[in-house]
Amino acid sequence: MSYEPPTPPAGLPAELVDTLNEASPEQLRDVARYAEGLAEHKEREARLEGEPDENDIEERPDDLPDDVPSKATITIKEINDNRYYYWQWREGEKVRSQYKGPINPDE
């Protein structure tokens, strides 16, 4: 472990870097978890908003429940430090989810 503080990415605004530099270790870990979750959410939203090409449409997966549309994608949610798979799709302005199972089948 280095005794020097890490160098922030060049693309981060200076105000954000200053705010992070003033945060406690616990706050920084909270920010890291939030930032990771927010990034996954924004990526998922972008995927769900994209129009599928005719070539992108695949056959209905065998494990897809009858009440889940074939356009659904699998996403990962973390709940109480456990990670789970969920089917997720858009219905109009709303994003719908349905539980698929734990990432680790032993859970």
UniProtKB/TrEMBL annotation:
Coiled coil: none
Source organism superkingdom: Archaea
Biased composition (Basic and acidic residues): 36-50
Annotated ranges, domain DUF6788: 59-105
Residue ranges of the region described as Disordered: 36-71
Compositionally biased residues, Acidic residues: 51-66
Protein name per the record: DUF6788 domain-containing protein
Species in which this protein is naturally found: Halorubrum lacusprofundi (strain ATCC 49239 / DSM 5036 / JCM 8891 / ACAM 34)
